From TrEMBL:
A GO molecular-function annotation: lyase activity
Record protein name field: Streptogramin lyase
Gene3D superfamilies: YVTN repeat-like/Quinoprotein amine dehydrogenase (2.130.10.10)
Region listing for Disordered, in residue ranges: 614-633
InterPro entries according to UniProt: WD40/YVTN_repeat-like_dom_sf (IPR015943)
Signal peptide positions on this chain: 1-29
Keywords annotated in UniProt: Lyase, Signal
SUPFAM superfamilies named among the record's database cross-references: Calcium-dependent phosphotriesterase (SSF63829)
Length: 750
């Protein structure tokens, strides 16, 4: 009987694992609105997408890894003879897409597939050896969305998918807000490789936006593809060269190496050891941590590789002996057991102690061997309509998939069905057959469902959420997590958090996740932010706990101040805009006429106005952008100043000051003023906008004065300084002021 955990775990991530049907609504909730949102309760976490994590009782209001990983509900079949990969929904048997395995003009003939921890599928191309290199390709995964035409209008047969998506790792390369991708079997989008643009790597000419990586690697005629706990990919080929490439962008992580063996097919075990079969002097066992390894002879097996998820023991078929070999993690042989046929290829081991052996590609072979991990032979599963089984893998429901190279189909085996065999266990029986179309030639001696990574190599889970910051160009500031007591990261476990942003929700698909540090500003810009937390277990099975996570925008570290004054006579203020000065606000004042006396001066003035303005109006609610700033201005139509010795008549007076965030997001200060006409005791003085100081018998007259400091500008059009009384006409000020505890803060920066 299958392990009972599966139905419970599937319910935990039901939102993500809904069958993919063209046109169904998104499987995830709408983006969460807010500039500062805390996720800590069950209902908060349910606003995101949970993959292999849960908040089940008694551990509510926190996230931890599922007891066993529930990997993605697909089987990814290399249609080797057609040069494509076909993805099948394991629940329904629906083929959800078909993709080329390499650009035009490059070698294809894919034979192995494996799945990374984000559901992407890597495949290797057996026919590529040009320039002494092989190749691997990665196909993204997308769930939910609505089929549309190129203009976004709904069409169930459309070539595009429009969000929101329940889950998406495909890339919106042309930033049109849509994902161009295959609808199903036979809908293979071109990959022109025009001008050889992608021959040495890249997917720039791929029409299908779920083709996300194409890399040239050291192993020629590449077969081995195996994902490690870091989500990087080990590759190997017929020249026994092995190399690790990045799970982020497909670039080399290690230099190539060869011990003279392996490269035919492989896996990475719980300890991170690479096992790679068959070429040269047979089986490679390599420990990346120490950089040491060995070649194991054919008594250890010589073809298919599988691993017991419970014990970590390695199973290795012998292609012509009728037996399969069991080894411990150090490579010591623990036994050799018959599996019901003289030949064997792929092998897989499930959570319930069953070993499944694909018997052979020989024409006429139509069985899969079933034995127990203690060596008990249970029986052969007959494959009605199946011919030439080559690969086997266990899906997320505990059922077994087999690919049949001669009958161009894939079949699903129910382990609980069929007659009772050896050890009183059910033999198993086929409960679903999926036609892959003529000329498919499926091979798939590999981890085509992701079970090896999901249940053995890297027990991981993710939680992701999209948050809406409300305005385009929003600046996101910090992601903070595990501030509550129940949050924990035991030794050997980890929680990594990544973010990506875009001004549209659909545009997130075209952006790359980048790591963020706990509570440290990361300053990504865009209305929407998507944050993904990845929880990884220790080799001993300990799980980290994510107790809480908060996503905040980044606020400006300062504000603008501003003020404008039409007239100031010895502290008597007439027409002042924004009297508080800090912070700046939009304001305006106007006075028709005024007649004042102070000390030796009498001042008459008409049409006095003052105005202040700030862009944007709500400074702290919006992120900084070039052009943000403040301005102040003052104007007087006519002024007459009288004393016993001096009479001054002034025409139109105008003064303005401003501070603006420039393209480099630094404050730029400016001030100017103008005096249309000036008469002193009836004598005309030409002033305009140039600064000028005039000595008078009663004091000093200073005109068009601009004072700029690192944080302010003050513009005074007219300032008369006497021993007894001062008068200022037309004064404008603009400043930047740091917020409390923000030394050196500026409204132009976060």
């Amino acid at each position: 009987m299958r392990h009972p955990r599966r139905s419970l775990a599937l319910a935990t991530v039901g939102a993500l694992l809904l069958p993919f049907v063209v046109g169904v609504p998104s499987a995830s909730a709408a983006p969460v609105s807010g500039e500062d949102v805390l996720y800590t309760l069950d209902a908060d976490f349910d606003q995101g997408v949970l993959q292999d994590v849960n908040h089940d009782a008694p551990n509510n209001d926190q996230l931890q890894l599922n007891r066993q990983t529930v990997f993605f509900p697909y089987v990814n079949v290399a249609a080797s003879a057609r040069g494509t990969m076909v993805r099948i929904d394991v629940d329904t048997g629906e083929i959800v897409g078909e993709w080329l395995s390499a650009p035009d003009g490059q070698g294809r003939n894919p034979s192995r597939t494996t799945v990374d921890k984000f559901g992407n599928t890597w495949l290797s191309n057996r026919n590529e050896a040009s320039g002494g290199k092989g190749s691997v390709t990665r196909v993204g995964v997308i769930r939910g969305g609505t089929r549309t035409n190129s203009d976004g209008t709904a069409n169930p047969a459309g070539d595009y998918l429009k969000g929101p998506f329940g889950y998406n790792t495909c890339l919106d390369r042309d930033s049109d807000g849509l994902i161009a991708t295959s609808r199903g079997l036979g809908d293979i989008r071109p990959w022109t490789n025009a001008g050889g643009a992608d021959s040495n790597g890249g997917v720039t000419t791929a029409a299908d936006e779920c083709l996300i990586t194409y890399s040239r690697v050291a192993g020629t005629n590449t077969r081995t593809v195996a994902v490690d706990s870091n989500n990087d990919l080990w590759t190997g080929g017929s020249n026994t060269q092995h190399q690790k490439i990045s799970g982020v962008d497909g670039t080399p992580v290690t230099a190539p190496f060869s011990l003279g063996c392996g490269g035919y097919g492989g896996l990475v075990d719980k300890a991170g050891t690479l096992w790679s079969a068959r070429y040269g002097t047979n089986l490679l066992r390599y420990e990346p941590g120490s950089g040491t390894g060995a070649c194991l002879d054919t008594t250890h097996g010589d073809y298919g590789l599988g691993m017991d998820p419970q014990t970590g023991e390695i199973w290795h078929t012998q292609v012509n002996s009728g037996r399969t070999v069991k080894m411990d993690a150090a490579g010591n042989i623990l036994g050799s057991f018959p599996h019901g046929h003289p030949r064997a290829q792929g092998v897989a081991v499930d959570m319930d102690g069953n070993v499944w052996v694909a018997h052979a590609l020989d024409n006429g072979t139509n069985t899969v061997g079933h034995l127990r991990t203690d060596g008990t032979f249970v029986g052969n599963v007959v494959l009605p309509g199946g011919n030439g089984p080559t690969g086997v893998a266990v899906d997320t429901n505990g059922k077994v998939w087999v690919t049949n190279i001669n009958s161009n189909n894939a079949q699903r085996i129910d382990p609980d069905a069929g007659p009772i065999g050896g050890g009183s266990f059910p033999v198993g029986a086929v409960d679903l057959t999926v036609d892959l179309g003529p000329g498919a030639g499926p091979y798939n001696y590999s981890d085509m469902t992701g079970s090896v990574l999901g249940e053995i190599t890297a027990p991981v889970g993710t939680w992701s959420v999209v948050q809406d910051g409300g305005v385009a160009g929003q600046t996101w500031g910090t992601v903070t997590w595990n501030t509550e007591a129940q949050g924990s990261v035991p030794p050997g476990t980890s929680i990594t958090v990544e973010a990506r942003t875009s001004d549209t929700e659909a545009g997130l698909a075209g952006e790359t996740f980048t790591p963020v540090s706990n509570g440290v500003k990361f300053a990504r810009v865009g209305r929407y932010v998507e944050v993904r937390a990845t929880l990884t277990a220790s080799p001993s099975g300990d799980t980290p706990v994510l107790s809480d996570l908060r996503i905040k925008t980044s606020k400006r570290t300062g504000v603008f101040s501003c003020q404008a004054t039409a007239l100031n006579l010895a502290g008597i203020i007439v027409a002042r805009a924004n009297p508080p000065d800090v912070p700046c606000v939009d304001d305006a004042k106007a006075v028709a006429n005024v007649n004042l006396s102070a000390g030796i001066l009498t001042v008459r003035a008409s049409a006095l106005t003052a105005q202040t303005n700030q862009t944007p109006d709500d400074l702290l609610a919006t992120p900084p952008a070039p052009g943000d700033g403040t301005s102040s201005s003052a104007r007087i139509e006519y002024t007459r100043i009288s004393t016993l010795l001096v009479n001054i008549e002034v025409g139109v007076i105008e003064a303005s000051a401003s501070v603006t965030c420039d393209a480099a997001m630094n404050p730029h200060f400016a001030g100017k003023s103008r005096i249309a006409s000036l008469r002193i005791n009836g004598l005309a003085v030409d002033v305009g906008s140039a600064p000028l100081t005039i000595p008078l018998v009663i004091g000093s007259l200073k005109l068009n004065s601009t004072t700029i400091t690192p944080n302010s500008v003050v513009q005074q059009a007219f300032a008369l300084d006497t021993l007894l009384t001062d008068v200022v006409l037309g004064e404008a000020k603009a400043n930047v002021e740091p917020l409390p505890r923000e030394r050196g803060g500026s409204p132009c920066r976060v």
